[in-house]
C-alpha cells in the first residue's frame, strides 16, 4: 500500500486498487495505459453536500499555487478523506510536483467517459495516493483534458465521498470565467507582494467573489518594492488569510521529490485551513517531513526546517467562518476576528 522510507518520504502504492464494478480496458500490469470507466449508476453512500470544496489559484504566474494547494490538501488529509484535483489544463500535471508521475492510477484523460451519476467511491479508489491524500492529475504524456461536463460530474462525485476537495485552479480559466470556481466554498489566492500580483488579482477578482465563495489571499514575501501585506490586501479588497515567507528549501525539496510538510508553507496551510472553517481542532504534528511518490530525485535530505523571517501568519489575519462578512473596522462575521493574531516572532506550531 505504501510506506515511508529512511528519509521520512512517503512512497506511493505499489499496487493499483481496483474497485468492484469498475470496467478496465486494460489489465492491471499496463498501469500507464489504464482507462477506467466508472459506474454510471448512483455511487453507494454518496452525499454530494458533505465535502467542502476549496480552490487555490495564483495571483500571477509563478506564485506557488500548486505547491500551496498540495500543502493544504495534506493538512486536511490528516483528519478527513481528501482529494487534490489538478485543473490546470496547460501544466505538466500536479503528479510531477508530487513525484507521482510514475505511480499507477487514473488521470484526467482516463475519465473522458465519466458522465452522469459517476460513482465517487470507485473514482477515489482508482486515484494515485500522495500519503493519505488522493490525487487527480493531468497527464503530461496525454495532454488532453475532459470537456467541462465531465469535470463537473467527476468533482460532484468526489465531493460526495470526501470531506474536503482541494482544487488547483487554472488562472486563465478563472479570468475568462471558464473554470469551476463557482463550485468552491472558499478560494485562496497566492499573492506575491508586488504590483504584477495586484494587477493579476484585480483582473479576476470579480469572477472570484461573484460566485459567493469566501475569498482571501496568502500574502507571499518578501516584497521587491516594499509592498506590505496590508497594502496588498487593501489594493485588491480581499482579506489576508495568512502570510508566507519564501523559503528556497521548499523549491529544493520539490526538486528532490515531494512537497515539505514542515516550515513556513505548512504553517501557512494550517492557518488557511482554520480560516476557511474546516480545521478547528488540534492534532498531532505531521509524522513525516515530506510526502513523495516515486523514487527520490537526487535523494531527499533531512526534514525541511522552520521558515525564514516573516513566517506565515504573523500579524493581521482574517479567519473566515461559514458566514463570514467583512464589517466595520475590518471585523469578520461568524469566523473570528480580523486583526493581530499574535505578535511578530511568535508562531504556534503544535496545536492551533
From TrEMBL:
Disordered: annotated span: 1-48, 277-352
Gly residues composition-biased segments: 291-313, 327-339
Domain of life: Bacteria
Gene Ontology CC annotations of this record: cytoplasmic side of plasma membrane; cytosol
Molecular function GO labels: ATP binding; ATP hydrolysis activity
Compositional bias ranges of the Basic and acidic residues kind: 1-14
Gene Ontology BP annotations: negative regulation of cell division
Protein name: CobQ/CobB/MinD/ParA nucleotide binding domain-containing protein
Naturally occurring in which organism (per UniProt): Cellulomonas gelida
Lineage: Bacteria, Bacillati, Actinomycetota, Actinomycetes, Micrococcales
Amino acid at each position: 500500500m505504501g510506506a515511508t522510507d529512511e528519509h521520512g518520504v512517503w512512497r506511493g502504492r505499489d499496487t493499483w486498487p481496483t474497485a468492484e464494478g469498475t470496467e478496465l480496458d486494460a489489465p492491471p500490469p499496463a498501469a500507464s495505459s489504464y482507462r477506467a470507466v466508472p459506474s454510471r449508476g448512483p455511487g453507494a453512500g454518496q452525499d454530494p453536500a458533505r465535502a467542502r470544496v476549496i480552490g487555490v489559484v495564483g495571483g500571477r504566474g509563478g506564485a506557488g499555487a500548486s505547491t500551496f494547494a498540495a500543502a493544504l490538501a495534506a493538512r486536511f488529509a490528516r483528519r478527513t478523506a481528501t482529494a487534490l484535483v489538478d485543473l490546470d489544463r496547460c501544466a505538466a500535471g500536479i503528479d510531477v510536483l508530487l513525484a507521482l508521475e510514475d505511480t499507477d492510477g487514473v488521470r484526467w484523460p482516463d475519465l473522458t467517459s465519466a458522465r452522469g451519476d459517476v460513482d465517487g467511491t470507485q473514482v477515489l479508489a482508482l486515484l494515485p495516493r500522495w500519503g493519505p491524500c488522493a490525487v487527480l492529475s493531468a497527464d503530461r504524456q496525454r495532454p488532453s483534458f475532459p470537456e467541462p461536463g465531465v469535470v463537473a460530474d467527476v468533482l460532484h462525485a468526489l465531493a460526495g465521498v470526501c470531506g474536503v476537495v482541494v482544487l488547483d485552479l487554472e488562472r486563465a480559466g478563472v479570468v475568462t470565467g471558464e473554470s469551476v470556481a463557482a463550485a468552491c466554498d472558499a478560494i485562496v489566492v497566492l499573492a506575491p507582494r508586488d504590483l504584477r500580483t495586484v494587477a493579476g488579482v484585480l483582473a479576476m477578482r470579480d469572477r472570484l467573489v461573484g460566485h459567493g465563495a469566501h475569498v482571501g489571499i496568502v500574502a507571499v514575501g518578501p516584497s521587491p518594492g516594499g509592498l506590505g501585506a496590508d497594502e496588498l490586501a487593501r489594493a485588491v479588497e480581499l482579506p489576508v488569510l495568512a502570510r508566507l515567507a519564501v523559503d528556497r528549501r521548499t523549491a529544493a525539496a520539490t526538486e528532490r521529490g515531494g512537497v515539505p510538510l514542515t516550515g513556513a508553507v505548512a504553517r501557512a496551510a494550517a492557518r488557511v485551513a482554520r480560516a476557511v472553517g474546516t480545521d478547528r481542532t488540534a492534532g498531532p504534528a505531521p509524522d513525516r517531513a515530506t510526502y513523495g511518490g516515486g523514487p527520490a530525485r537526487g535523494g531527499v535530505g533531512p526534514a525541511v526546517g522552520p521558515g525564514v523571517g516573516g513566517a506565515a501568519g504573523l500579524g493581521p489575519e482574517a479567519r473566515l467562518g461559514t458566514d463570514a462578512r467583512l464589517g466595520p473596522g475590518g471585523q469578520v462575521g461568524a469566523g473570528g476576528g480580523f486583526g493581530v493574531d499574535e505578535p511578530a516572532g511568535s508562531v504556534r506550531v503544535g496545536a492551533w
